[in-house]
């Protein structure tokens, strides 16, 4: 090791220590948050399937598409954090390759599920404003999934090439392919999020100051915009992390690096809590709508009963007036 390498190692030492400490802390934060998220989701599912008004409850399913996506996203983020910790501490080549493969897999899975979830949630608003767009978005999602699979393959090959002479000559090729695909993933998520934010903003602008709005779509739009902003912050932190950590010398202060790692590790948790909050708001809106419907039915029945009773009394009085007059002996 020459003096340059030694100086570089010494300079990076505080950053490595911060990375190790924060990764361990964020691992337990993620585990705790994931347990809390699953408990909250179970409580929401129980409420909407068992304790909601009858007319709303009969249409709900425990294993709905949305609920399954939420559970898988929570678990994917949990496994991502676990394998990130294992990969960072791995020294054995085989373990390094395996942990890196799982880390890449769960990262790609989480990103794909986030995009799919955003599409599913935003579909009502998209169909309202841009009805011709959904088929193209489906194709976009399929291509994004293929891109994630390709990234998984090339990332695994890149790590393997660092430990075997058979693929050493292809290391630069794998590295270029991984970097290009990472850029494509980030660009794809940016394009999708900008599109979704634009659609939500258009809807909110259209119904601004108008009483003719659908509360459910307003909820979807507001939470959708917030979710996309969080996702873009997460993607930005990933890009900056990859750029700064691949440099020969640190390009940011230790404080900036610490903040960056927090955003990198914890942004998905913020996103998932937003989805749970949106589910709660949508459920409350469903309950309110169902209760209003029940109240209207009860009121209509009461009015019908009142009118029927009034008609019967009127008929009785009319019949009494037609009786012959006279004294009763």
TrEMBL record:
Disordered, as annotated region: 305-329
Alphabetic keyword roster: Membrane, Transmembrane, Transmembrane helix
Transmembrane feature ranges: 27-45, 65-84, 96-117, 137-160, 180-203, 223-244, 256-274
Protein name: Uncharacterized protein
Organism: Rhizoclosmatium globosum
């Amino acid at each position: 090791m020459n003096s340059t390498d030694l100086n570089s190692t010494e300079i990076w030492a505080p950053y490595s220590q911060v990375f190790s400490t924060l990764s361990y802390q964020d691992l337990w934060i993620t585990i705790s948050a994931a347990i809390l998220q699953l408990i909250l989701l179970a409580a929401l599912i129980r409420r909407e399937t068992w304790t909601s008004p009858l007319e709303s409850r009969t249409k709900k399913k425990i294993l709905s598409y949305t609920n399954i996506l939420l559970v898988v996203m929570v678990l994917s983020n949990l496994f991502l954090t676990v394998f990130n910790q294992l990969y960072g501490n791995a020294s054995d080549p085989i373990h390094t390759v395996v942990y890196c493969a799982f880390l890449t897999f769960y990262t790609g899975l989480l990103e794909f599920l986030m995009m799919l979830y955003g599409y599913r949630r935003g579909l009502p608003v998209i169909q309202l404003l841009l009805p011709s767009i959904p088929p193209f978005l489906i194709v976009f999602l399929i291509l994004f999934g293929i891109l994630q699979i390709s990234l998984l393959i090339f990332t695994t090959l890149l790590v393997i090439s660092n430990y075997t002479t058979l693929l050493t000559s292809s290391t630069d090729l794998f590295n270029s392919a991984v970097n290009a695909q990472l850029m494509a993933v980030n660009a794809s998520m940016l394009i999708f999020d900008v599109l979704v934010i634009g659609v939500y903003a258009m809807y909110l602008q259209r119904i601004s100051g108008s009483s003719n709005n659908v509360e459910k779509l307003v909820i979807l739009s507001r939470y959708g915009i917030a979710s996309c902003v969080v996702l873009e912050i997460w993607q930005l932190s990933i890009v900056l992390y990859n750029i700064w950590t691949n440099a020969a010398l640190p390009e940011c202060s230790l404080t900036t690096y610490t903040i960056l790692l927090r955003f990198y590790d914890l942004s998905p948790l913020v996103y998932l809590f937003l989805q749970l909050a949106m589910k709660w708001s949508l459920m409350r809106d469903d309950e309110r709508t169902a209760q209003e419907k029940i109240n209207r039915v009860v009121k209509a029945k009461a009015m019908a009963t009142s009118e029927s009773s009034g008609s019967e009394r009127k008929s009785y009085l009319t019949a009494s007036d037609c009786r012959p007059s006279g004294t009763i002996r």
